[in-house]
Amino acid sequence: MTLPAELIIARHGEAHCNREQIVGGLQGCRGLTDRGRRQIERLAQRLGQEHHERPIHAIYTTPLRRAQESAAIIGAYLSLDAETVADLTEQDYGTADGRPWTDVVAEYGDIPALDADRPLAAGGETWRDYLHRSSVAIGEIATRHVGERVLVVGHGETIDAAFHHFLAVPIARRATAAVAAYHASVTTWVQQPLSWTRPSVGWRWTLTSHNDTRHLSANAEMTES
Asked: Please, which residues bridge with residue 189 across strands?
């Protein structure tokens, strides 16, 4: 019987666009702050310690600078190079990229979470389209690493996409419920037997931890913006 797989999703550390409340796409993202780097260093140390007993076989990351820098720090501890997957990148906000969130939302004229089929700005991507492409990417990574332990370094939206993919969370649920995702937090999905009394039947994905920040010190100031 195939061994179970484990998918770890780590959110990047605090970035300048988070601190400045700027839409952080390819243009707006200027990478991690000093605090963000410290957060990721602590996460990397934790994963490095775990790696000795339970090896991580591969690291994947999004194209955005804050995720790339986070993945590079972690990869140095694990002696692994991260592979960039374009479809893991967060929602494309079009012409809103690089602008203050307050201005963009004011121009939008409504609450973005209430409409999954309307882009935030011209040339942008809908939430529905984002969830589709990113959840497909997550599914492909999981399929590629049967029986292995894999790390994805991404965004809060990456964690949303995993919930959508593994639990079939309805797209409209974004307007009534959300999941927290602090900087440098860890969310873990593990394959477990569909039936403990009949393990040969197959596996299902189980959420074993979410928004885990125990590796961060009190002065690391856990934030989710």
From this structure: 7, 207
How many angstroms separate the CA atoms of 185 and 9, rounded? 8
Burial class (CB in 10 A: 0-12, 13-18, 19+), 59: buried
CB 57, CB 50: distance < 8 Å: no
Give φ, ψ of 156 to 5 degrees: -60, -35
Q: Would you say 76 and 70 are in contact if contact means Cβ atoms under 8 Å apart?
A: no
Extended beta strands in the chain, E state: 6-11, 58-61, 82-84, 149-154, 186-193, 203-212
Instruction: Give the Å distances, CA to CA, from 138 to 144, 145, 154, 158, 216.
Output: 10, 11, 11, 9, 26
Of 105, 102, 136, the closest CA to residue 121 belongs to: 105
Strand intervals (E) in 12-85: 58-61, 82-84
pLDDT, tens digit (0-9, with 9 covering 90-100), for 60-70: 999 999 999 99
| DSSP-based three-state secondary structure for 150 | strand
Q: What's the token pair of residue 24?
A: 């952080």
Q: What are phi and psi of 213, to 5 degrees?
A: -125, 25
Task: Give bridge partners of residue 192 from the DSSP assignment.
Answer: 204
Q: Measure Cα distances from 6 to 46, 58, 81, 149, 200 in Å.
A: 16, 11, 19, 5, 18
| Out of 2-6, 14-18, 94-98, 181-185, least confident range | 2-6
Please state whether the predicted TM-score (pTM) of the whole model is above 0.90. Answer: yes
Q: How far apart are CA 136 and CA 163, in angstroms?
A: 12
